[in-house]
């Protein structure tokens, strides 16, 4: 069976510090990978998606970047965090393109102070 | 802005009653719809999905109805239980090559014992 991991579960960082959140998927190959951000009491905003190693598409301009160094590894990064980067970050994967459900990880709660 | 929205941001029901959560979508080209359940502090979990060539799909205690004429989606939960308390999101996919989902803001369902 497939599993998705995210770490850390919670993170408190000062403004201006760097960020690295990691997501890994087990039990499948060539997944589509996604990073979402969820503000408190709000819906999910797609930040990045990837259909393969080294292939990253950004949905919204922002202070964040994403990388996919391996097939089942997806990393969300920032060089300098802003207060507005606080939120709940969710990684997800799907089997393929178009019409497939996405499976979500447990999320990372990021607080920027 | 988001093309998927919810009519009711909060819903309170009595245990044992049926719950109906509604969702409106604006993109007539959307061909796949999905409902997720998100408990506090956790990632969304798949509940049920439906493709645009169907009007109704049933799962265990849940039914999704799709009305393409008025671009409306609903989730029905039979015999609602306290464990059903969560935020429910609908999402649509309009058939883009990357298979991205657009999420609504969510409806919080509270079940009273």
List the topology elements.
The complex is a heterodimer of chains A (113) and B (113).
Chain A (H helix, E strand, L loop, with lengths): L2 E5 L2 E4 L5 E8 L5 E7 L5 E9 L2 E4 L6 E6 L2 E6 L8 E8 L8 E2 L3 E5 L1
Chain B lengths: L3 E2 L4 E5 L4 E7 L6 E7 L6 E7 L4 E3 L3 E6 L4 E6 L8 E8 L8 E2 L3 E6 L1
Parallel strand pairs in B: 2-11
Antiparallel strand pairs in B: 1-3, 3-8, 4-5, 4-9, 6-7, 7-8, 9-10, 9-11
Instruction: Give me the secondary-structure category of chain A.
Output: mainly beta
Q: Which two chains touch over the largest interface?
A: A-B, 27 and 27 residues
Biggest sheet features of chain A: 7 strands, mixed
Helix content of chain A: under 10%
* Multimeric organization: heterodimer
What general outline of chain B do the C-alpha atoms trace?
globular
Largest sheet of chain B: 6 strands, mixed
N-to-C series of helices and strands of chain A: EEEEEEEEEEE
Distance between the termini of chain A: 38 Å
Written as H for each helix and E for each strand, in order along the chain, the element string of chain B is EEEEEEEEEEE
N- and C-termini, Cα separation of chain B: 37 Å
Number of H- or I-type helical stretches of chain B:
0
Report the β-strand fraction of chain A as a percent range.
Answer: over 45%
**Alpha-beta content class of chain B:** mainly beta
In short:
The complex is a heterodimer of chains A (113) and B (113). Chain A has 113 residues and is mainly beta. Helix content of chain A is 0%, strand content 57%.
Question: How would you portray this structure in words?
Answer:
With 113 residues, chain A is mostly beta strands. Chain A has strands spanning 3-7, 10-13, 19-26, 32-38, 44-52, 55-58, 65-70, 73-78, 87-94, 103-104, 108-112. Chain A contains no helices and eleven strands. Chain B has strands at 4-5, 10-14, 19-25, 32-38, 45-51, 56-58, 62-67, 72-77, 86-93, 102-103, 107-112. In chain B, β4 (32-38) and β5 form a beta hairpin. The radius of gyration of chain B is 13 Å and the shape is globular. Chain A binds chain B through residues 32, 34, 42-46, 49, 51, 57, 59, 90, 92, 94, 96-107, 109, and chain B through 2, 31-32, 34, 36, 41-46, 49, 51, 89, 93, 95-106.
């Amino acid at each position: 069976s497939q599993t998705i991991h995210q770490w850390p579960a919670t993170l408190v960082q000062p403004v201006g510090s760097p960020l690295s959140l990691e997501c890994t998927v087990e039990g499948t190959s060539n997944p589509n990978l996604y990073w979402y951000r969820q503000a408190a009491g709000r819906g999910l905003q797609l930040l990045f998606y990837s259909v393969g190693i080294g292939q990253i598409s950004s949905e919204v301009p922002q202070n964040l970047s994403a990388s996919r160094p391996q097939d089942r590894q997806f990393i969300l990064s920032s060089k300098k965090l802003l207060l507005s980067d606080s939120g709940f970050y969710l990684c997800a994967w799907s089997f393929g393109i178009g019409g497939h459900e996405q499976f979500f990880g447990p999320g990372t709660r990021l607080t920027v102070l | 802005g988001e093309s998927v929205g919810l009519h009711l941001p909060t819903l309170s029901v009595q245990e044992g009653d049926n719950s109906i959560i509604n969702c409106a979508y604006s993109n007539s080209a959307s061909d796949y719809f999905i409902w997720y359940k998100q408990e506090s502090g956790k990632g969304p979990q798949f509940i049920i999905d439906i493709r645009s060539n169907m009007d109704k799909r049933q799962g265990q205690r849940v039914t999704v109805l799709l009305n393409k004429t008025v671009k409306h989606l609903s989730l029905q939960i039979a015999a609602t239980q306290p464990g059903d308390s969560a935020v429910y999101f609908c999402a649509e996919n309009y058939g883009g090559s990357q298979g991205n989902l657009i999420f609504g803001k969510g409806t919080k369902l509270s079940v009273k014992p």
